[in-house]
Design brief:
By secondary structure, the chain is an alpha+beta fold. It has one domain (8-80): Orthogonal Bundle (434 Repressor (Amino-terminal Domain)). It is 48% helix and 12% strand. The protein contains 4 helices and 2 strands. The protein has helices at residues 8-18, 22-29, 33-40, 48-60; strands at residues 63-67, 72-76. It has a two-stranded antiparallel sheet with strand order 1-2. A hairpin with a 4-residue loop joins strand 1 and strand 2 (72-76). The radius of gyration is 12 Å and the shape is globular.
Length: 83
Amino acid sequence: MSRVIITYKQCRAARELLGWKQNDLASKSSISATTIADFERGVRELRVSTLEKLINAFENAGVRFENNSIKYGVEFLKEFEDK
């Protein structure tokens, strides 16, 4: 299975779409808020395993990412909106 690896800007955008604070994402992904803050500021690179935890937390909330040579994207699936 091919995994999308997100950028720090996509992480910030996804969090904003959901109305989550960094502490919310930390709780949902089991990653420290400090690590998330550093990543979102672009001063820390994350291991693939850590990025996958972030992606899983976002996907469970209805966010999908696109990251390829043509475009980067973040979308919120409406079916999750009322959950």
